[in-house]
Amino acid sequence: MLSEKAMAIHRRLCGVYGCPIPYFHSLDPVSELVSSLLSHRTRNAESGRAFKALRARYPDWDAVLAAPTAEIEETIAGVTWPELKAPRIQAVLRAVRERSGGLDLGFLKDLTVPEARAWLEAIPGVGPKTSAAVLSFSVLRMPALPVDSHHHRVAQRTGLIGPKVDVGPAHAILRAQLPADWDAQSLYDYHEVLMLHGQRCCHYRNLACGACAVLDLCPTGQARRPAARAAATRDLGHPAA
């Protein structure tokens, strides 16, 4: 069963990357929402710099909402598509204020995870990854599972999801493979180890299958083994077997 395979992969990768994994920051949920919007298709270093630039230039998120959009775009210029993200951030902040009466998402803690995610995803521009990130990564520390591009790639290659399953639908499929009673730390660890494995071993190109801790559980890696062995033999100057 896929659930058994998911747990086997999780245990193996936890042994490699060390669980429990400390949370990388502790932002309030609105700040995490902005951070997540900035991170779309952008490297962590660049989105982190843009987030810090916003915090340095404006005293609070109300000031970001009131600022000229061109000024926001200038401030976050280092991210991918700043011309799209600047108006989107303001539109999302505006929707939060209109729907909740302010720029405070602390009330989400009183909802179930499905209710909180539905509330966030009702805002145009907020999808499954962003809603899960707000609940999991922020100080809310709720048991939601984000799926980023690295996590998604590892899940596809290991066969946990099909080759045509996009990132959005993958959230529900991958969450259903895990214990329903897992707490926030356990789900965070699961996300982090698959993400780290995608960054450090299961690369988009130049896969390091020879160093993979879950090679025996990975159909993609197993299919590549003869080719990888032949390439290594050629590199040593010997004819391929």
From TrEMBL:
InterPro entries: DNA_glycosylase, HhH-GPD_domain, HhH_base_excis_C
Entries under Pfam families matching the protein: HhH-GPD (PF00730)
Entry's Gene Ontology BP terms: base-excision repair
Leader peptide range in chain numbering: none
Domain named HhH-GPD: residues: 38-200
Family matches, as SMART domains: ENDO3c
Protein name: Fe-S cluster assembly protein HesB
